[in-house]
Amino acid sequence: STNNAMDTAISGQGFYQMIDQNGAILYSRNGQFQVDKNGYIVNNQGHKVNGYQAVAGVVTATQGALQISASDLTPRQTEDVAVGANLDSRAVVPLISVFDPAAPTSYNNSTSLTVYDSLGVNHIGSLYFQRQPIPNLTAQALPSAPTTTSVSVASISGLAVGNTITLPNGGGAGIPVTTTITAITAGAGTTGTITYVPATVAAAIGDSIPTNAGSAVWKTYLTVDGVPVPATAAAMATLTFSTTGALVTSLPVAPATVGAGGTVISDPSFTPLGANPLPLNFNFSQVSQYGGNFGISSLTQDGYASGRLNGFSTGSDGSILGRYSNGQTQILGQMLLANFTNPQGLQPVGNNEWIESSASGGPLVGTPASGSLGVLQSSAVEDSNVDLTAELVTMITAQRVYQANAQTIKAQDQVLQTLVNLR
User: Fold this and answer.
1) 122 CB burial (10 A radius; 0-12, 13-18, 19+)
2) Which candidate, 300, 284, 299, 190, places its Cα nearest to that of 240?
């Protein structure tokens, strides 16, 4: 492991393709790379790494010397916003029915997020949720003449003229009413017809029955930098929930590509200074209405400001991933590897580099982790295939042998010197 993000080791088979100053292709497993003054990825000899080029974060099929662009990342205008929230089903209708972002009593809850225009300038978008009144009761016209209904005689106790009984569906729409029996006509089996007084029914149900009972309606409003969008301060969307708290409809309805529950708001009245109009596409499919406190579970948007390149790293597949100051990442290129039918047949040219020969065969080029090619590891270099411990022991042994031999020669020299002196 190393501290250089550009150091890259190959785990498995393969060689880097290096381009020298004359355009010749060399092969190496030494991944000690750096970036030169022109942004090219090079080794210690200044040879450039070959790979696939990338355009706007997309890897192309064009090969060449990999060059890191230090230009700022182009901003992206916000287009899609996804909202995940729970609206409290116990909430009451606000005191003020006309929405006003400056009047907290005109809405129930609010949240905000940052959106970006075409220049990458951030704006504060605020969402407001306003519960609507329960649907009005619709008056029911009751007949003035005596009404008859068929019932199961066996299911009603006290079935006799003059008795007061409860009819399960006397008021229609499943509404039970209490009435007085005025006549009974026997039928086949256990069924019969009961005639009852309509006035009693009218008094029992108040001349009305609820319509659309159980559904709840909320209106959603939007402001950007405090300015209502649309400019008329009309509701951006109307959300209707079922009796189980699930979103039933969201109006207006978004295109099919957005998914269920989306809504498109494209109002040119909000045009940032010097930028394009900012249309926003909201998706409310993850909004619910349960008996719990209001809460935001997710609030995402797809825009971002411009960013400056802070650093980069190499993925296991050779992709060079740039990291920018705005928190975004983008692919800047992809390294390639080459393998040979007989790697031992490569001809060395020094500095841990080789060239192909007739004995090695032609190169088989591909991306790392494809086919028989190995994977890459960033911030690492390939370890030596020499056992340093064994080599150190061998060196020490050789040194001691040398010292022993030197002492032998010295002893022989002293003996010869002594013999000379005796003469």
Assistant:
1) middle
2) 284
Tokens 């009218």 belong to: 202
Q: In which band, very low, low, confident or very high, does the pLDDT at 158 lie, cut at 50, 70 and 90?
A: low
Provide the residue count of the chain.
Answer: 423
Please tell me the distance from the alpha carbon of residue 132 to that of residue 44, in angstroms, as a whole number.
71
139, pLDDT greater than 50: no
Higher pLDDT, 379 or 166: 379
Q: Give the separation between CA 167 and CA 183, rounded to whole angstroms.
A: 14
> Strand 208-210 to strand 137-139: parallel, antiparallel, or no bridges (unpaired)?
antiparallel
d(CA 40, CA 33): 10
CA 366 to each of CA 15, 327, 338, 343, 373: distance values in angstroms, whole numbers, following the listed order: 10, 31, 6, 16, 8
d(CA 25, CA 37): 22
Which of 381, 89, 321 lies closest to 214 in space, CA to CA? 89
Residue in the structure block whose two tokens are 């606000």: 94
Cα 423 from Cα 416, distance rounded (Å): 11
Place of tokens 């916000």: 78
Strand 247-251 and strand 237-241: pairing? antiparallel
Assign 167 a pLDDT band (cuts: 50, 70, 90). Answer: low
Can you say whether residue 413 is alpha, beta or left, with left for phi > 0 and alpha for psi between -120 and 50 degrees?
alpha
Q: Where are the beta strands (DSSP E) in 33-163?
A: 34-35, 41-42, 48-55, 58-65, 80-86, 109-116, 122-131, 137-139, 147-152
